[in-house]
Amino acid sequence: MKGMNVMFYGITGDKKLVAANQADKNMTYYCPQCKKLLILRQGRHNLPHFAHMRTACLAFSEGETGEHLQGKKFLLAFFAKYYDHVELEAYLSELKQRPDLLVFRKANKNLAVEFQCAPLTYDKLSERSTGYRQQGLAFFWFLGKKNYRLGKRMTQKIAQFLNWSAVRGFYLIYVDVVQKRIEVAYQLQMVDFLPLRYLRWYTSDFLQLRSFFKSYQLTYVPMVLPNDHMHQLRVLQKMRYYSRGEMFSLQKTAYVKQANLDEIIARGLNFIPYSPIYCKALFWWHAQALVVNENVDVKKIAQNFGYQLAFLNSETFILMDICRLFLK
Prior knowledge:
Residues 64-189 form the Competence protein CoiA nuclease-like domain. The chain is 34% helix and 20% strand.
């Protein structure tokens, strides 16, 4: 493959997308981007792939994972069932970048679709998203499950992709290439010192996905059961025993202010679900605010406790959480 641009998908004369490992040597294939003739290589020692000379094309699929390739193929079919014109790896010369798909929509802005499988920094995510905005493109990021699978807690790597819907709350959308379907993790919520909570929904149809975000549903509020509360108290008891980090700071402040730490913990511990945008439990700034008896600084919370969000204004949701917590 040295000295050549390699691609794992080509298109036929009637614009059907074909994987190199399923291609017929007797057929003619073209580059999905530049539409020039491709060479099919299916040797014993290399992965099946298409190739053309390096100067022939500005966009190619070099070094992609199997998950990314399968996901792009799924998304192409997913959108093509509803939209007449969906282009794979369309090169945007103004931005010198190419979304995985470009969906041409008559009534609305054209849609740039990204399927993110590899780790991506917040700065790079923001840069690419800003570029789409400046070009007047709508855009959306689908996630791969290998590197962005949700666990018991949120992480910066995942939180930066968070979106919010008035109907479904905080959500993320995945492409499950194994099951060949879209997976929506929605109503993502946090409770102090407990695992991340959310619901899942699946579809393989674009119209169903669109309808899912338009249909009304009551907000999911996970119950904090007695066992959950006991777990919260055990976590705090262990922290008080070792007296490190945030707990040490809280103990020190309570001592200086002559505040009753047991009372502060009882009042500061939260049973109400809150936004999944924080890298630390809300208990910490809630308890500190109770000890010093002063108003909470939203900007300070966002800076010290919040994840960096590419598509949302964290201060809006922090203010909502403050209102709920202090009025409980």
